[in-house]
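Appendix B. Raw example, untouched.
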Amino acid sequence: MRTGVSIRYLTKEGIRNVWVNRMMSFASVCVLLACLVMIGIAFLLFVNVQALLDRVDDQNVIMVFVENDITQEEIDRIGTEIGGIANVSDYIYHSAEENMEDFKEQFKDVILLDFIIKSEANTIPASFEVRLENMELFDSTYARIQKISNIQYIRSSRPLATFLVSLRKSVSYISIGAIVMLLLVSLFIISNTVRITMHSRRLEIGIMKNVGATNSFIRWPFMVEGMVLGGFSGLLSLGVVFGIYTLIVKSLEAALELTVAINPVPFMSYVLWIFLGFEVIGVFTGGLGSLISIKKYLKEKDYDEILEEE
């Protein structure tokens, strides 16, 4: 019972200290806010680049053209074999007539269109438009398609597929590295900021230590204080990131509306994950930063010197 009462009392003291030491609390929130905002922007940049690469992936298909003068049963068999390949997510059949209509549409402005149509009339075969699940398996999937009989030729963008795979990996590594680095920077900065707070309150800690307070008794209010500041910083950061992201999206749309259409990822699609991430990072960083910073002032050998200084 006494332990429960002590924890409640110390927790209230930690929360009260946020206001009592409001200048240092404000500094800590500002520092953590800046770090969390950078993490949030880095995460949204990563998500948008991945979404853009996914859209490009959707356009990077393999066109499989079958031989002319084969039966419908052979065409169905080719479609079944293509669909049976593990990495094929979807395939669409285009008849020779449909391909001819597409050909006419593409070259409708060409002066010699009639001559081209006559020369190509018997050479445009039926085809399958094949989409892949994983572009990293492009080469192995391409090789399996090549082994299917009654295929005239295959058209694909292998260099683009290879480039996209490399780009996706690079973006993932860079984004994860940046977020981890910002987390470490956040922990370092908040630890040093809290350390300044600890230094200004070293007499308070020294007196508590000399009257017999245990390390846990002294440590808990500071840890609660750091966690409260971290949680508040996380909530505040969510609003700031939303404002910055909205401003960036509107600026890009205004600048690029005449040249290219952009489809940024909606902020609300990730708001819950960003909020939870900010709260976890804020509370963890604030609490751990306080524990790291107070460690120095919990050493008994320092307290005589501290009291003499005061």
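End of appendix B.
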